[in-house]
Amino acid sequence: MSLTSSTTGGASSLDDAPVSSFHRRIMVVAMGGPFCDGYLLGVMGVALGLITPALALDTLWTGLIAASVLVGVFIGGAVFGPITDRVGRHLMYVLNLATFVVFSALQFFVTEAWQLLVLRLLIGIAIGADYPIASALTTELVPRRMRGPALSGLVLAWWVGYGVSYWVGWALTGLGDDSWRWMLASGTVPALIFLFMRAGIPESPRWLASRGRMDEAKAVVRKHLGQEVSDEELLAEGRQEQRGGSGLGNLVEIFKRGYTVPVVFCSVFWICQVAPAFAVRSFQPQMLSAFGVGSTYGASALITTIAVAGIGLGLVVVNRIGRRSLLISSFVCINVSLIALAVLPLHWAFMVVALFAAFQFFEAAGSGLQFVYPSELFPTDLRATGVGIATAMSRVGSATSTFLLPIAADDLGVRGTLGIAVAITLVGLVVSYFLAPETKDLGLTEASSRS
Question: Which family does it belong to (predicted)?
Answer without folding.
Answer: Belongs to the major facilitator superfamily. Sugar transporter (TC 2.A.1.1) family.
